[in-house]
Amino acid sequence: MFAGVHTALITPYRKNKIDPATFKKVVDANFAGGVTGIVPCGTTGESPTLSHEEHHAVIELAIKCAKGRGPVIAGTGSNSTDEAVSLTKAAEKAGADASLQVCPYYNKPSQEGLYQHFKAVAKATSLPIILYSIPGRSGIEIGVETTARLAADCKNIVAMKEAGGSVERVSQLVAACPAGFEVLSGDDSLTLAFMSVGAVGVISVASNLIPQVMSDLVRHALFGRYDAALALHKKYYRLFNTFLKLDTNPVPIKAAMALAGFGEPTLRLPMLGLDHEKTGILKKTLKELKIV
User: Fold this and answer.
1) Taking the CB of residue 224, how many other CB atoms lie within 10 A of it?
2) Is-contact 249 219, C-beta < 8 A?
3) For residue range 174-223, what is the model confidence (pLDDT) as tens digits?
4) What Å distances lie between residue 152 and 68, 121, 124, CA to CA?
5) Which of 88, 126, 176, 247 is the residue whose CA sits 20 to 30 A from 271?
6) Quick check: 197 and 166 in contact, CB under 8 A?
7) 108: left (phi over 0), alpha (psi -120 to 50) or beta
8) 126 and 87 in contact (C-beta within 8 Å)?
9) Are 225 and 233 in contact (CB under 8 A)?
10) Pick the catalytic residue: 132, 278, 287, 290?
11) Known catalytic residue: 161?
């Protein structure tokens, strides 16, 4: 269902307002580059600093810009179950094709709490749901047993975006979950490694900037052309690594997109843009890879 590359879209701003023209430009470039689908209002889309009205507006804009070229997986998760339900219902009404549900952050629920949270969201919608485990931001992970239980009990919980950094955990998820449950990498640098043990693609930050590269890498891996996939991984690993080292996502990708002609590198507080020195490092990497 979700095999391939799905771009975790940036949310471009102009004078601190959503920039629809640049957003459309990014979406068009991504589909032209062969991505499978798009994911508005995730971590990369700065969902924590979007108002509810803006959140709805970005998802609606993504659906409009996609024009049926691929699925729109709306980021509608929250650490409040009622809010996650509300956002998901609104996205379904707007015409989204699926929902990305992040592991509740800050309040650190138990595994039973996570089960009840995601079950409540799944019950409130007919959209396919991709769970999103990212312990580095949430403080906890969605356990393998919890994931398997949800996949067995909720027919529309069908996939996991795994951003815990462990190849072993991907193997555990594939073994524990029902046939057909899909795992997607949540880290560009681990896409190939995760796919080697059963993941079917990536929800990608880098594909905002290099959609064709990421599409080719994943397509090669899906068809067993691991030498070709590895060659792309090796070539662009320095970019993935630069993104990781320079600052917190989405700061580096916002800067890179601006350097490539996609709007301003503007973020909302408390996030700040790259300083002059780090921008220079990023620009050097992009030039050496002939991206700009």
Assistant:
1) 9
2) no
3) 999 999 999 999 999 999 999 999 999 999 999 999 999 999 999 999 99
4) 30, 15, 17
5) 88
6) no
7) left
8) no
9) no
10) 132
11) yes
Taking phi over 0 as left and psi of -120 to 50 as alpha, with beta for the rest, 15 belongs to left
DSSP 8-state code for residue 124: T
* Three-state secondary-structure class, residue 10: coil
**pLDDT tens column, 4-43:** 999 999 999 999 999 999 999 999 999 999 999 999 999 9
Question: Could you give the CA distance from residue 178 to residue 181 in angstroms, rounded to a whole number?
Answer: 6
Output the CA angle 282-58-142, nearest 5 degrees: 75
Q: Which residue has the tokens 């490694």?
A: 193
> Taking a C-beta distance cutoff of 8 angstroms, is the pair 232, 220 a contact?
yes
Mark out the alpha helices in the chain (DSSP H runs). Answer: 20-32, 52-66, 81-94, 111-123, 135-138, 144-153, 167-176, 191-195, 211-222, 226-246, 251-259, 276-288
Q: Are 234 and 217 in contact (CB under 8 A)?
A: no
Task: Look up the pTM and report it.
Answer: 0.96
Side-chain-side CA neighbours of 256 within 13 Å: the count stands at 30
Q: Which residue out of 24, 25, 64, 161 is catalytically annotated?
A: 161
Give the alpha-carbon dihedral of 267, 215, 292, 235, to 10 degrees: 110
All structural domains of the chain, each given as residue ranges with its CATH number in brackets, are: 4-226 (3.20.20.70)
Alpha-carbon span 80 to 191, nearest angstrom: 30
- Residue 19: DSSP 8-state: -
Measure CA 123 to chain center: 23
